[in-house]
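Annex B, item 7. Sequence and structure tokens for protein A, then protein B.
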Amino acid sequence: MELLFFYLVALVAVLSGFLVIKCKSPINSAISLVMTFFCLAIFYVMLHFLVYAGLDQRFDLAAILEDIAERPYITIGMTALVLLIPLALTSTKAMMRRLGRRWQQLHRLVYPIAILGVWHFYWQVKLDTLEALVYAAVLAALLGFRLTHWWRRRTPGKSVDSRSNHDRSAHARRSL
């Protein structure tokens, strides 16, 4: 449970780091911070999986596959893990250069992965879901902020050409 807690904190930190980058902060330090938290998140997700596979299932592949099929929270957790693997493999500077724009498209998987992580946590806890709901609220706020930022960037603002004819003629008279 502690590992899942740290995983969610790390994912929220990664998403927060993306927000920091988008808010025009010093780019190099922000990217470094995001990559550090991302590496920690991957490390703890893998550790969480190894603890599950080793302690709970004794590395019995048949039991793990049966558990994935029978328990929805394990299915969601495994889906998040599988989606996280390509991000982990392409998180180096060399892969960023090699993939170009496709790197950014691939790394947008962090959003559904974060949702799956919170969902996995929510379904895993049996009695007290308050902590999982707090993570869901924080994630919803971060994703809402990100979506708002994306929407504003996509929606064109008022440009000089969007002024009415009356505004243009008034501007022309003032400039004479």
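Protein B:
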Amino acid sequence: MDTTNINIEELSTADLKRLTAAANETIESRRSEEQAGAMGQIKALVDDNDLDIQSVMDFLSPKPVKTRKSNGTPKANVSKSPPKYRHTESGATWTGKGRKPEWIKSSTNPEQYLIPEAERTSTPAVKPVKAPKASKAETVNETPEADPTTSAGE
């Protein structure tokens, strides 16, 4: 079929189908050639700029949107509450919402940790750093020794 000057109104259904198939093949062939050329350009840019593939992929991949588990709708950007309590020894803070930290639970007077209203800011709460756990071998074979800096009554 000669496709140089075609009046598609005069073509039969079979000729239109053949023309469509030929056009789709040409489109796919050109798309493949263009993609190969683009990939060559990308590879040259990566090589010329000493980039690694993972950093390029991280840059190109979309960031996940936080959604609610219940219905999948996006979560609103809600600012965190300012801390209301601060542990005097570790510097850990708690907003007064959610699960109580151990230092509040074990305290007979949690009000002692209240941060004055004027000092409260909207900075996120600081979590205390936990000491690494000892292995089973270390805990089975060791006996606790008295700390010479503390008295026996503490």
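Comment on protein B: Strands lie at 85-86, 93-94.
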